[in-house]
Amino acid sequence: MSDERDDSPHQERPARPPGGERAAHRPRSTDPLELGFTPRKPVPWLAPFLLISTGIRTLLAVLFGAYLDKRELQNAFGDDVFRQVAPDGGLWLDYVADLGDGFNATYSVAYLLAQPELTVDGHRLARAQTLVMGGDQVYPSAAYASYEDRCKGPYQAALPVAPPEKPTLFAVPGNHDWYDGLTAFLRLFVRSRDRNFAGWRTGQSRSYFAVELPAGWWLLGVDDQSGSYLDDPQLAYFDEVARQLGPESKVIIAAPAPTWVKAADNPTAYDSIDYFIRTIIDPTGARVRLLLSGDLHHYARYSGPDRQLITCGGGGAYLYPTHKLPERIEVPPRDTLARRASSAQPYDLVARYPDAARSRRYGWGIFTRLPFRNPGFTTLLGTLHTLLMLAMAGATANWADSTNQRLFSVPLVLMVLVTVLAAILFAKPPSASGKRHARHGILGVSHGVAHVALAAAGTWAWLALPFYDWPWPLPAVAAAVLYGPVIGLVASQLVAAYLLVAGSFGVNVNELFAGQGIEDSKVFLRMRIDPDGTLTIYPIAVDRVSRDWQVNPDQSPTQSWLTPKTRLIPRLPEPPTVLH
User: Fold this and answer.
1) How far apart are the C-alpha atoms of 203 and 207, rounded to whole Å?
2) 3-state secondary structure string across 185-224
3) Cα separations (Å) of 248 from 6, 87, 483, 534?
4) Rounded CA gap, 273 and 172, in Å?
5) Cα→Cα distances 500→3, 37, 440, 572, Å
6) Per DSSP, which regions of 62-116 are E strands?
7) Cβ atoms 485, 382 nearer than 8 A
8) Which runs of E-coded beta strand occur in 308-370?
9) How far is Cα 311 from Cα 427, in angstroms, rounded to an integer?
10) Mind telling me which residue stretches traverse the membrane in this protein (predicted)?
11) Are 439 and 505 in contact (CB under 8 A)?
12) DSSP code at position 572
């Protein structure tokens, strides 16, 4: 493989050991001190403090994203255009997205990516010479320590040293990479000091890139800052890239989010990508044959008259459902507000992973997974219901005394209002940019009223027991020790039932699956460009990730540090897609 850059000789630095200092030391156990990073459990997305912190980060990104935007400064980083071609004139290309979550899922995918060859349903697929990370390389925030433990560390363990073909890595930032204004992302992927990310070489000069591939194919990675807009330096960069395109060129665009799907709920979501294609690509006569994205944590392929739209966000994050995907979409949507939008074209959903039936079955797992995957959320529910019960019990016990009744009615009314209001705010569309409809309000109010009814039933049961008649503060202690854990578990089942019902109406779909933290059903793409220009796309699915690892007995430098005790079995969720 060759990798041609516009680097001048004085910019080159002395070579450093491939993969950094940790590659020189192979671990003797799975202890974090041996690995050099801490394997993390999946993010508990419904943990109270995480919900609050994520909400604050999202709010700050919305309010101050323009002030944190470092893309304008990247104009000074360089304007490299890369070329990736293997010695045989073709290229193997991998695509993975939404990868930096729990170790078991993230490393299972990284391990498969790093193997010299995979045999999948009879197809022998060589390790890719180019790896593209499609966004959200880390969860839940873009802290550098999170990148080390949830992204770089697992990939270091999978491919500690560059193999002879010296594969190259390119990365597109997703919304979670943007939470710190791209600071950590730029350190890791853009002109890093040693230009290595584990066994992959880095070198992209900005948070977006252009790569010339074999036989007239091009790969363009765009950064639209969570769907907001494309900055002027980025447009100027791609204007220069477009000078090298012509009618014979075929383009692959790697975008941070599948805005073609999100446009079904928010018609303006696709405007940024449509503007890019209409003003940068179309004037050259080149054809955009493939749009790639992560962000939604599953595999879905929409097929249209002239291109394929593929969502492949199964690199490690919790599974996102497929059974609510629209069967047909128009791209761009006819009701977009963009005055010069491209002509709308129909696209049909031709493949998805997991399939719709399995996705629905996963949804029912919310009853068992919610309380045990999110103990903090269950504790929060128990605390709120305990306070609500004590307020109801106080008002009920002092019903005959008008003065005490009014005294206890104030906290009761406040608790009821807080409960119903919280339930209304909790009922939200699948994405942050989605619009609220009447069903959101109806479901939210119904959910809140259901919790008030549960609290009333719990109060009736509690007053039937002798604890409330004990001297104060023993009733409060008994409520905290006995009532709280029980009602917390019962309330979590009520929330689970709400999520299952609401999900069928397209409300809280994300929470229905985020609350379960499903590690299985992961997927990535392996693509082959032949010297004659044929592009073959192999979606590679793993139905069950490994949960038990051992030190690799093969101590060769390029071998993965850890191997699964139970063999990973990759398969194709659909036959390969061939583009010419």
Assistant:
1) 11
2) HHHHHECCCCCEECCEECCECCCCEEEECHHHEEEEECCC
3) 24, 22, 71, 13
4) 14
5) 50, 37, 14, 29
6) 82-85, 91-96
7) yes
8) 308-312, 328-331, 345-353
9) 25
10) 45-68, 377-395, 407-427, 448-468, 480-501
11) yes
12) -
Residue 470 structure tokens:
């004990």
CA distance 361 to 137: 28
Strand boundaries in 411-548, DSSP class E: 522-529, 535-542
Residue 344: Cβ-neighbour burial (10 angstroms; 0-12, 13-18, 19+):
middle
Distance CA 81, CA 529 (A): 19
pLDDT digits (tens, 9 = 90+) for 409-467: 667 788 888 888 888 888 876 655 566 778 888 999 999 999 999 999 998 988 888 87
Token pair of 16 as six digits: 């450093």
Structure tokens at 48: 């109270």
How many CA atoms lie within 13 Å of 541's alpha carbon, on the beta-carbon side? Answer: 20
The CA distance from 418 to 384, in Å, is 10
Q: Which residues of the chain have pLDDT under 70?
A: 1-24, 53-79, 191-193, 225-228, 337-339, 397-410, 429-435
Q: Can you tell me the distance from the alpha carbon of 134 to that of 109, in angstroms, rounded to the nearest whole number?
A: 14
Compute the distance between CA of residue 204 and CA of residue 476 in angstroms, rounded to an integer.
Answer: 60
Phi, psi of 570 (to 5 degrees): -75, 150
Closest CA to 200 of 171, 175, 226, 232: 171
pLDDT at 9 (0 to 100)? 34
Quickly count helices (H) and strands (E) in the chain: 17, 23
CA distance 323 to 193: 44
Residue with tokens 């992204």: 151
Sign of the torsion formed by the C-alpha atoms of 96, 102, 103 and 104: negative
Shortest CA distance to 382 belongs to which of 501, 482, 463?
482
Task: Quote the pTM value.
Answer: 0.87
Interhelix angle 438-463/484-504, rounded to 10 degrees, is 160
Please name which of 323, 274, 318, 328 lies closest in space to residue 294, comparing C-alpha atoms: 318
How far apart (Å, rounded) are the C-alpha atoms in residues 367 and 378?
12
Quote the pLDDT of residue 175: 81
